[in-house]
Amino acid sequence: MAKLQLGTALCRKFRPHMFMILVQICYTILYFITEASFKHGLKPYVYVTYRHLVGTVFMFPFAYFLERAQRPKLTLVLFLEISFLSLLGVGLPMNMYFMSLKYTSPTFVASTVNIIVPLTFVIAVVMRLESLNHRHPRGIAKFSGTLISLSGVMTMALFKGPIVKQLWRPLIKIEASQTDDENHEKWVLGSILMVASCFIWSFWYIMQALTLKRYPAQLSLTTWMSAIGTLQSTVFAIIVERERTAWRIGFDIDLWSIIYGGVVISGFVIFIQLWCTEEKGPVFVTIFGPLTTIMVAFLAYFILGETLYSGSIIGAAFVVIGLYLLLWGKEGDGEEAVGVKPEETHPSYSSSEQIEIDRQKALSA
User: Fold this and answer.
1) CB 327 within 8 A of CB 287
2) pTM score, two decimals?
3) Which residues cross the membrane (predicted)?
4) Which helix H or strand E contains 119, and what residues bound it?
5) Cβ–Cβ under 8 Å, residues 66 and 220
6) Most buried pick, 58, 63, 167, 262, via CB within 10 A?
7) What whole-number distance in Å separates Cα of residue 128 and Cα of residue 359?
8) Among candidates 356, 294, 341, 331, which has minimal Cα distance to 24?
9) Which of 282, 314, 280 is nearest to 297 (CA)?
10) What is the C-alpha separation between 118 and 150, in angstroms, rounded?
């Protein structure tokens, strides 16, 4: 009986840890199932359109019933603001993000997306929404962490380096369908698209904080952005892809990747992240982010036999180290803000830790 009680207590204590590890596993699967569907022939912009349609249908009842009391009236001005917010958070960066995944690799994308936090921090400092004390150890950590993360991304994008030799025969071998020159051109294009999407998302986080003050209903706002993003992606996809066959989805990997992204990521993952944030706080949630990078790199190299370059390993290491330095520096902001009344600040929107949570929600949208 005592052992059973001890086991129950341990499960309750480490339940948030297990949930966050499960969240990172879900994100890891997302990278590979979408890459598989792209290799199967699914167009990234068609995927984004269908996925957000599924996500909107799935999230609508939760947003409608759970936030009925706190959802403010939607005016025309607020609707236009949410539409622009959707363009910055869904329409543009999502299409660029998944196009980059098609042109590069899951390892590169999972590593590069971590720079959204330092990029947003830089923009916030320029706009005087964040403080930076270069004489304080935590201020130095913020500055150095930002530089290290950005240098890591530049390393991954511009320096491939030697190919890491396979230690054993992979379980599933991915065969390259392009020549070296074609691969290089697509890698450069994919790198540009990925970095550009991170910049757009960084501006989106700043604007999202302002919009949430006027529309403080997160589930409803996410649903609105997903619905409007579906329309925006549809217009873009129709302009780019006019072949009707591109919109036909069979009972195959394409369908499963869309359902997985719309239901598991947009629904289950968002709920778990919000629950863990309430239980343990934003810092706890953000420290698990780089775990996805590690799992994606491990599976891509050891299981799928993906070509791994030394530049990607070095760059990813710099990105993760810089991210943790920045988060450590940001963790002290609450200690420095002694004397400020709770209602005068909003920790959910002012900290870079919450930016990482919002970044994951954006990928989940």
Assistant:
1) yes
2) 0.76
3) 16-33, 45-66, 78-96, 108-127, 139-159, 187-207, 219-240, 255-276, 283-303, 309-327
4) helix 116-126
5) no
6) 262
7) 21
8) 294
9) 314
10) 8
Type of residue found at 336? E
Question: Could you list the pLDDT tens digit for every one of the 365 residues in the chain?
Answer: 666 666 677 777 778 889 989 989 999 999 889 988 988 888 888 998 999 899 899 889 988 888 888 888 889 999 999 999 899 888 888 889 888 988 888 888 888 888 887 887 788 778 777 777 777 888 888 888 888 888 888 887 777 778 877 776 666 655 544 444 456 678 888 888 998 998 898 888 788 778 888 888 888 888 898 899 899 988 888 887 777 788 888 888 999 999 998 888 877 887 787 678 777 766 677 678 788 888 888 888 777 777 777 888 888 888 888 888 887 887 666 555 444 333 333 333 334 445 555 555 555 55
- For 215, phi then psi, to 5°, come to -135, 75
Domain layout of the chain by residue ranges = 22-141+175-290+350-364
On whether the CB atoms of residues 276 and 14 are closer than 8 A, the answer is no
Distance CA 226, CA 163 (A): 39
Of 67, 109, 52, nearest to 237 (Cα)? 52
Q: Of 121, 131, 145, 333, which Cα lies nearest the Cα of 206? A: 121
